[in-house]
Design a protein that fits this description.
- The protein is mostly helical.
- The radius of gyration is 28 Å and the shape is rod-shaped.
- It starts with a helix and ends in a 25-residue tail after the last helix.
- The C terminus is likely disordered.
């Protein structure tokens, strides 16, 4: 009958309006989640950039240190060569902070540079005339400060990255994250002690 048709019409209209409201609300929610993920990812990128800045600061100090040391008479050339080669390797590694293998390779190369620097500084102790110069002492101080900043930057990055990983793993945000290609961030491996910056001992006289 006509009354039944009218009732059905209004019923279907009401259903469509409800479905439309659900779609609109869902759309706003999805946009909100996406913006939240964009902001979170930007935080991870910023924290990672701070790590790279500190490692680059150390890398920039190395040529100056080598230049000062190589002027010392009879200084062990192999020690200097090891530092130069380790620096070249460390600066050539490309890092994707969402890839654990990439971060591991980066950490390993930086560890090699730190080891080479440690051996250099130990060897330099046999040259009191060199260690007494203001230029060398200034570079040692800069290197020590940079190692401390590296430790802080790595710790900050791990904190931000860990929070990000929790965010992208939570339901229902995980569905938006997977759909839009937001990956988890790799962490510095605390199990191997890599959450701490490579330590360089300084024995200033």
């Amino acid at each position: 009958s006509e009354n039944n048709f009218i009732s059905l019409f209004f019923f279907m209209k009401k259903v469509l309006l409800i479905l439309l409201a659900i779609v609109v609300i869902g759309g706003f929610w999805a946009v909100g989640q996406y913006n939240k993920l964009v902001t979170g990812r930007a935080g991870v990128d910023t924290a990672w950039s701070n790590v790279e800045v500190q490692y680059q600061r150390r890398s920039d100090i190395v040529p100056q240190l080598v230049a000062v040391v190589e002027g010392a008479a009879n200084f062990e050339k192999k020690t200097l060569t090891d530092v130069v080669e380790a620096r070249a390797k460390a600066t050539s590694v490309q890092v994707d902070p969402t890839n654990a293998a990439s971060l591991k390779a980066f950490t390993a190369s930086q560890g090699e540079l730190s080891g080479a620097l440690s051996r250099l500084l130990v060897t330099v102790e046999a040259y009191p005339t060199l260690t007494a110069t203001q230029g060398f002492r200034d570079l040692q101080s800069q290197l020590e400060g940079t190692e401390n900043r590296i430790a802080v930057a790595r710790g900050d990055y791990n904190g931000v990255a860990n929070s990000w990983n929790v965010t992208v793993a939570r339901v229902p945000t995980v569905f938006i994250a997977r759909l839009m290609g937001f990956d988890k961030a790799a962490l510095f491996d605390a199990a191997t002690g890599s959450e701490n910056a490579p330590k360089v001992e300084f024995n200033l006289q």
